[in-house]
UniProtKB/TrEMBL annotation:
This is Non-heme chloroperoxidase. SUPFAM superfamilies: alpha/beta-Hydrolases. InterPro entries: AB_hydrolase (IPR050471), AB_hydrolase_1 (IPR000073), AB_hydrolase_fold (IPR029058). Residues 23-258 form the AB hydrolase-1 domain. It comes from Methylobacterium crusticola.
Amino acid sequence: MPYVTTRDGVEIFYKDWGPQDAPPIMFHHGWPLSSDDWDTQMLFFLRNGYRVVAHDRRGHGRSAQVSDGHDMDHYAADAAAVAEHLALSGAVHIGHSTGGGEAARYVARFGEPQGRVAKAILVSAVPPLMLRTEANPEGLPRAVFDGLRQALADNRAQFYLDVPTGPFYGFNRAGATVHPGVIQNWWRQGMMGSAKAHYEGIKAFSETDQTEDLKAIGVPTLVLHGEDDQIVPYADAALKSIKLLASGTLKTYPGLPHGMLTVNADVLNADLLAFVRS
């Protein structure tokens, strides 16, 4: 299987599909999943003539289950190692949830300075900051994230059923069509990864202030968010992010959940493609 070794010696698994000379798109997955979460989008863009790349974050999926480096700085540096190894140029970077934070930091600190990025898309993404602080009083209280850590430490296998069965895809809403295979696939991806990486990743996605990352991004950036996102409230993320981006476009979706890329792929894929082609 294809791996790249980072500067600190971590093996990162990646997928690279399609013609090497086609326009590249690189995907950044959410917590606690893997690059498999992008299968629908990768196949869609592959059919539309693009080269598609995705990697498993350190401690996730098939990448090395190392003890350290489970923070946004290392996430972005690992993504940079993949992009540099594959010599990606003029790429569109698409990040979902925690992957949106990773993509934002990568674009700001590596991609744009190296001239490798054409556009960015942040979907249901965690920036600029999820945690409630004095400077961010609209954020979520620390107790929310402490509860996630406790549930993971007590019974990760059950926790990784409860999240997709409930709020992640909006399956807890009245009248929702529940897809058991989607739930099982979420569980499968989560349980492939390291409990320690996932535990420490909660701090990374909740406490990392990415205000300066967003300010530093100059390429056209599309922000997409479901208005019924029970994981990353759109008013605290998308509406703040769009004010910080130099060249941002915002689109929100009434009634759609955090996992809308999967359960509403027909809608999202069309909008992603339109922006990539624009």
